[in-house]
Amino acid sequence: MSTHILPKALTTLIDEFGSLPGVGPRTAERYAYAALRREAGQSKRLAQALNELHQRVKTCPVTFALIDESDDLSPLYTDSRRNRQLICVVEEPLDIMALERTGQFDGTYHVLGGAISPIDGIGPEQLHIPELIERIKNDGVTEIIIATNASVEGESTALFLQRYIQEAGLTLTISRLARGIPVGVDLEYADQITLSHALEGRRTLS
Amino acid sequence: MSTHILPKALTTLIDEFGSLPGVGPRTAERYAYAALRREAGQSKRLAQALNELHQRVKTCPVTFALIDESDDLSPLYTDSRRNRQLICVVEEPLDIMALERTGQFDGTYHVLGGAISPIDGIGPEQLHIPELIERIKNDGVTEIIIATNASVEGESTALFLQRYIQEAGLTLTISRLARGIPVGVDLEYADQITLSHALEGRRTLS
Asked: Can you give the pLDDT at residue A204?
C-alpha cells in the first residue's frame, strides 16, 4: 500500500535503510526523508562510501583486523611501539576500536571473527584460532588477554580457547577482562550475575 | 585517532551514516560494519537508491506531497475516489503516510512544508498557505482538518491557519485532530496537558 502513497524511489530507499540492523520501518522512513531533505550531494557521498566499501577494505592476514586495501598488514601490528608478545583476542573488528579508545593497551590484537555458537552453526573451526596459535609461536607471545563478549557465546569461546592453548602445550599467561559493576551503575540495579562477578573479582585495597 | 585504527573507507562510511538524524557514533559504526559484513550487492543497492533519490522524487505542485518524477500530480489527489472537498493539512510529507495507514480518510492532503517557528526563522510566508487558499477556492472545499503536530509550533501554525482562513472570508468547516489519551497508556502516566485535552474533548456516551 505504501508504494502508492510515497514515490517509488523513496519507498526503495526506505526498504534499503530498513535492511540495516535495528532499523525499523519508522526509523527507515526518517532516514530516507532526511536524505531527501538535505542536499543531493550529501546523499551521494553516503552512496559513494557504500559503493567503495567492499573494494577498499580488506582483512589483515595476521590479525584479521580490517585494513585499507593499500596496506599489507594492520598498522596496529606493524607499529614498532606495539608489543607483539601481548595479544588481545576479540570477537569482531569493531571491538578493537572500543579497546583502542581506552588508550590503555599497547599490545596487538587478534580478531576471531565471531564466537562459538552451535545454534548459528558456528564452531571453533570457523574462527581464526589456528592462526592465533601460529602467532603465539612465531612472535613468542607471553600473554593473551581474552576479550570476548560477556555473552554465553563469548564465555564458551573464552573457555574453549583457554583449553585449546593449554592442550597445545603452550606456556603463556592467559587472562580475561575483569567482570564487575560498570561505571555509573547503582548497586541496586546491577543484576545478580554481574554482582557475583564483582564479588569474586574484588580487589584488596591494603 | 580512529582513522588509524579502522580503514579509511570504513571511517568515511561511519561519518556519512553519522550525518543521518539521531545516529550517534556507535550506531553509525554498527551500520557501517553491517554494510561491510553483508554482500557488496546489498550495500550497492542502498547506494543506488541514495543516488537516484533526488532526481526521481519531486513535489506535487498542488498538494506538495512527494511524488514520482513521472507523475504530474499526487495520486492521492488525482484518484477519483478521493473527496477533493475535504483537505487534511499536515506539516510534512511523511505525515501523509501515518494518516493513510489508518485507512480512515478519503479526502486529499495539503503539505504545509513545516510549521511556524520564529526560532528557526520559519514564518507563515515560508509555508504553502496561499496555495491552500487557492485550493479551497478552486475545489470548493467544505472542510479542512488541521493535522499539525502536537508541539508548540504545530499549535501556533494551526491557530494562524484558522485565523487566516477566517480573515480571508472563506466559509468552511475547520476541524482539528482530537487530543487525548493514546491507546495503551495508563492514566497515571499521562501528562497533565494531555489529560486536560482528554477532559475537554470528552464524549457523551448516552
From this structure: 77
Domain at B82-206: CATH code: 3.40.1360.10
- Which among A31, A53, A92, A95 is the top mutation candidate for probing chain B, defined by the most B β-carbons within 10 Å of its own β-carbon? A53
Query: What was the ipTM of the complex prediction?
Result: 0.81
Domain residue ranges in chain A: 2-54, 81-206
The burial class, CB within 10 Å (0-12 / 13-18 / 19+), for A117 is: middle
CB atoms A50 and B31 under 8 Å:
no
C-alpha closest to that of B34 among A85, A183, A53:
A53
* pLDDT score for B196: 84
Identify which of B144, B154, B205, B142 has the alpha carbon closest to the alpha carbon of residue B179: B154
Q: Mind listing the pLDDT tens digit for each residue in B66-93?
A: 999 999 999 999 999 999 999 999 999 9
Q: Given the C-alpha cell 519507498, which residue does it identify? A: A11
d(CA A120, CA A97): 25
Would the CB atoms of A54 and B36 count as touching at under 8 Å? yes
pLDDT tens per residue, range B127-170: 999 999 999 999 999 999 999 998 999 999 999 999 999 999 99
CB B89 within 8 A of CB B148: yes
**Whole-angstrom Cα distance, residue A69 to residue A67?**
6
pLDDT in tens, A133-186: 999 999 999 999 999 998 999 999 999 999 999 999 998 999 998 888 888 888
* CATH number of A81-206, picked from 3.10.129.10, 3.20.20.10, 3.40.1360.10, 3.40.250.10: 3.40.1360.10
* Topology adopted by domain B2-54: Helicase, Ruva Protein; domain 3 (1.10.8)
Q: How many CB atoms lie within 10 A of CB B186?
A: 7
Q: Residue B50 is nearest to which of A13, A30, A52, comparing CB atoms? A: A13
Which among B7, B21, B42 is the nearest to A57, CB-wise?
B7
DSSP state for residue A47 in the 8-state scheme: H
Phi, psi (rounded to 5 degrees) for B30: -65, -40
